[in-house]
Each structure stands twice: as C-alpha cells, then as structure tokens.
Amino acid sequence: MIDKAPQLGILYPHDARMSHGQASLAALQQVIAMFIGCITPALIFIAAVELDTATQNYLISMSLFTAGLGTFLQARRFGWIGSGLLSVNGTSFAYLDLLLRAGSEGGLALASGMALAAVPLQFILAFFLPSLRRILSPLVSGIVVLLIGLTLIPVAGYYITYGLDSGQTWSQNLILAAPVAVVLILTQTLGKPLLKVAGPLLAIGLGYLIAASMGLLSWPENASKAYLIVPQPLYAGLAFKWELLLPFGIIYLVSSIEAIGDLTATANLSGIKTTGDDFWKRLRGGIFSDAITTTFACMISVFPTATFSQNNGVIQLTGVGARQVGYYIAAILIITGLLPQTGLLFSMMPKPVLGGATLVLFGLIAGAGFRMINQEKIGNREVLILSVSLGMAFGIPTQVAFVDSLPSVLAGILSSSVATGGLTAVFLSLIFANIKSENTKIYRV
C-alpha cells in the first residue's frame, strides 16, 4: 500500500469512505509516523524537571490522549471548529524550549499555566489569517523554526552524556546513543518510504533492545495498579509569570503560521482546492481546533498541541487523505493514552537512547527551518535579516549577567534565543518592507 501511492496519486480523497480494515491500516501508518515525536517533549521535560513516577506516567499518557482529541476535532469539523481534514495533532516541539525554562522555574504548574495564559492569542489569530501570512513571511517563520532546532540540539547532547559525572562510563552512553542515531539517519536516507515513516520507532526500539541486553531496563516495582489513567483537571495546578507571557505568545504566533502551511498541504494532498472562502474557513477551523485542544491539554497539566507536518508525507506516500482515517487515529491515540502501561514503558527509556534520537530529530527541525527560509529568493536584505536575527538570538541570551540586570518582562524575552531572534526577524522585516531596495546578488542557503 505505502510503496504504490506515489504512482497512483490520491486513492481516497478527504470525504471518501473506506472499509474498517483499510482505515485501520492507514491509521496505524499515521500513528507510527507521529508516535515518538508526540511523546518526546514529555520525555525531555521529565528528564529535566523532577517529577514523581505517577506524574511522569500521567504526562506521557495524556500527551497521547490530547493528540487523539485534537486529531478527532480536526477531522470531524464541528461548525467553526476543525478543518475537516486528515490533520494529525500532537505535542509540539516548538514550545519545548520555553516549557523547559518554565519547568525549571516553577515545575509542571508554571509550564502548563503559561501555555494556558497565552493560548487566547491563538483564538484571536484565527480571525486574521491572511494578514498573518503577510506579516510572517517564510523567511521569518523559517528563522524561528531554525532557532527552535538549534536551541534544542544541546539538550540532545546533554542526554547523550547523561550520568558521566556520577560514574557512568562514556562507552556505555555511546553504545546506547550511537546505534539509535545511526538507524534514524539510515532510515531517512535510504529512500524507502516505509522506513522513513517507521524510522523513529525502529530507532527507539533498537535502543530499548540494547539497554535490555545491558541490564538497564526494569519495570518499576511501585507501579500503579490502576487499570486506566484518566484526565484530571488541574492535575499539577497552575502558575503564572508575566515575563514569560510574550515569549509564549511568539511561539503561538509561529505555530499558527506553521499550521496554515500544514493544513494547506493536507488539503492539497486530499484533493481539496486551496483557494476560496471555504478553504479559509477550513484554515480558521484548524487554528480554532488547535487552540481548543491546547486549552484542554493545559487544563489537565499537559502541553500545547499542533498539526504534525510529517503526517502529510504519509498521505503523499499512501494516497489516503480520507478524514475518516482521523477517527481511527484518534481512537488509537486515546486508547493508548488511557493505558497506564504506555507511560510506564516510555518513562523507563535510558537518557542516552533519548539523546541519540533527539540529536537527529532536532537537527531535522533546524533543517526544516533552512528549507522554509529558502522558499524565497535570498538577497542582501534577507541575508541581513537572517544574520542579525541569529546574532541577537545567540549574542544576547548568553550574557546571563546582563539579562538578569534587566526589568523582569524584558529579561523574560531576551533570555530566550527563540523569542529574541524571532522578534528581531519580525521587526527587521517590517522595516525593510517599507524600504525599496534592489537585491543585486542572489544567494542560496
């Protein structure tokens, strides 16, 4: 099924009906493509912030549960809510840097509280989508995505070297991390569609096998005996800091722009026109769906969700764009999230295994940023915006003493590389948009 699609084109457009067996197989392919990416933000947060075992399991399981809810809302399309497309949702990497920062200052309560406080911006943005695309060009969006990847790569390095200061040997870490990274790289470069889709899951699976052979895996003895993990309102409580509000708002802005691109690609691959009023209503419904799912997620102490672009690749490979498949994906994710064994299994993952996988995944995010930047012709003005944005992103936030001496709100912005670089890119783009100048030389990034 997956290898024939590129020649056959669209086999099942957005409103096509499929048999239960066909829809289940297509849903499983989509889940395989997004599963590791969906739970990785929770895994990294768990590794960075001290959480008890029950909270770790809850965070992982509910990340899958909310992804299922978001996927269902997108496919079902209730009035203004949802795009009516096979758009798969999951916990977004875009927020991870800020979530880690909030977590280090106030735990899960501050991380979910700040994400909830900023989410009204996403509801407002849904009404201004055409203007939003004019303000945030591919250059600006690409710079932000590039910064997200670059700021997360050191996190992967930290987990690859985790435990070396407490007696763990570098050879043990390398044995765990290197095969995971190699398998992930090979699956993305061999050109086989099925391998690309299943690559992250295969790489993590190999890491588990190696860890088990080394005696590094053990099922927790104090594991909960509950049969289900259910959503709990305000599980960790909520906290708030004014200085983090604008940085979170910037990421919601960028996430909404990315959603426009993802939903446009999904519509195109599913046989829907990407022009006209109905299309813009679909986009608005998609942004509303993301905002509603994120609101629910934060209310149960989980992280923001967003559309997953990698699942458009699965649609292209399989030729299946039927939104009916979204219901099956939602069911798989919700059921998997309700099972306590899911959280227990992935909370056992050795840190170097997680580091090996995220080293490649975060690099791919940075690469996606370069690809977005290169959608435009890169002339002198664009190179200047890129250069100054990167300079500000890594020049100011690294000066900790200077940032700490600033007023708290300003320090909250300038301590984040993504927020600093993103705001610089927006500011310079708005200035240069009103200045007519000739780009005499064209570069390619």
What does this protein structure show overall?
51% of the residues are buried. The protein has a two-stranded antiparallel sheet with strand order 1-2. The two termini are 36 Å apart. The protein contains 19 helices and 2 strands. The chain is globular and about 65 Å long. The N terminus is likely disordered. By secondary structure, it is an all-alpha fold.
Compose a concise summary of this entry.
With 445 residues, the protein is an all-alpha fold. The protein is 69% helix and 1% strand.
What are the key terms here?
445 residues; mainly alpha; two-stranded antiparallel ribbon; 19 helices; 1% strand; globular; disordered N terminus
Proportion of helical residues: 55-70%
**Total beta strands:** 2
* Largest sheet geometry: 2 strands, antiparallel
Overall pLDDT metric? 86
Structural class: mainly alpha
SSE arrangement:
Blueprint: H1 5-8, H2 20-48, H3 53-76, E1 89-91, H4 96-118, H5 120-125, H6 129-135, H7 138-160, H8 170-189, H9 193-213, H10 245-269, H11 277-299, E2 305-307, H12 310-318, H13 324-338, H14 340-347, H15 351-373, H16 380-395, H17 400-404, H18 408-414, H19 417-433
Antiparallel strand pairs: 1-2
